[in-house]
Amino acid sequence: MKCPFCQHEDTQVLDTRVSEEGDAIRRRRRCGKCDKRFTTYERIELVMPYVVKKNGSRTEYSSAKLRGSLTLALRKRPVAAPAVDAAILSIEEKLLTSGQREVDTGYIGELVMQELKRLDKIAYIRFASVYKNFEDLAEFQDAIAEVGQERKPRKA
Questions:
Q1: Is residue 155 part of a domain?
Q2: The domain containing residue 24 runs over which residues?
């Protein structure tokens, strides 16, 4: 590690600790030449896969676009913000753990539908109607019947 003061390449690690947030390693260092001290941090670099669109073009993954899609489907629905954040984290975790360098929009859409089905059935139907491009009432009825079969019976 180069010293930021004199650019000498030989520095000594005096202390190593986990940061307060727990997401980095904090190292206290001392330069062997100028004897000045400085701190460095090591963090994990997470690289999200590229998104392959239906037309074949590739773009960087955007958490903001994912949040926008979920927010639009959940508009005026009684779902708390922390639940939406948890859904986004779940989707992003699945994308990271897939190990793929590229994923198509269809895979992301399926992940979104799984989370929406868990969060709010109406939002799921809204999203599915656009995502699956419903063209007639029968497709809506099929989607509603699918969600209705999973519904838990009410207690009297």
A1: no
A2: 9-41
